[in-house]
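Entry:
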Amino acid sequence: MCRTCRVAATLLLFIALTSGTGFCSTTAGAARAQAKAVEAELQKAIDRAQAGFVFIGGGSGVCISADGYVFTNHHVVQRHTTWDVRIYGLKKPYVADVVGLDPVGDVALLKIRNAKGLPFAPLAAHGDLRIGQPVLALGDPYKLGDLEGPPSVSLGTLCGLHRYQNDPEAPTPTFFADALQTDAAVNPGSSGGPLFDLNGRLLGITGQIMSRFGGKANSGIAYAVPAEQLARFLPVLKRAQGSAVAHGTLPDGLKLEWEDAKPSKPGAVVASVKSSSAAQWAGFRVGDRVTKADGETVTSPHRLMGIVQSRPRGVFVSFEVQRNGKRIGLRFALP
């Protein structure tokens, strides 16, 4: 059994023991000892996660390098280009400059001035994520950690992958194109905070809460920008010199068949291609069923849009389409 699954199973066992279910004393004693060992491991995971946490104004962030690069949400830092920040566990105050903005993806990259040897949490490399695995969400909800306190830590589960969430009513149109979903408690002030697994891998940064009736309180559904997307945008954000970067999309002149999206017919069907358009030059034809994009399986039109819109504009992406019973490969730079 993997470590995260073992932790979850032991925590459930501990709950059962403390709720009065019928175990013999020997079994109960062994289980309590194991639960204490798991609690110690969980505390180690929390300590690792807190080490790179950054307090930014009324929001949160995470340091991803010893020389002071920090990820947070765009809506946390959009009002200013320079911020006084605090790194948990360090007494020294720091100043950070906004070096790159992604208003559409709700991401910002900051650089702490004269930084050297800072505690940090590197972005997780590509790896398998499992729905239901335990995760830790760190944040500064309602500024409870100000001015000297630690970040808040909540334990939850990874509830969903590849969520495509738009916010068309936002002043600046934003979307989480390939989001992670968690039920860990995320509230105002937690925006930009890191999401970890129990092995200490930085899975992404939380930034959006799904709520009803316009409220902004935790409802058990929060979304995080995944580490893979952050890693793709990191080089262009570093070069942005404080300006905004752009997301990729499908070529102009291409229309998808949204009503054809069915579990029995995975993929995204091309409904129309405008003559002499960028889509036609890219090689798309009416009736093409897109089944892969950038090596990822396309299950629906939403998934296709999630894949391309979670990449920076200008990167080359390969596509696989089914056309008249044949596999056709296409490759072009995302517009």
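The CA atoms of residues 123 and 189 lie 21 Å apart.
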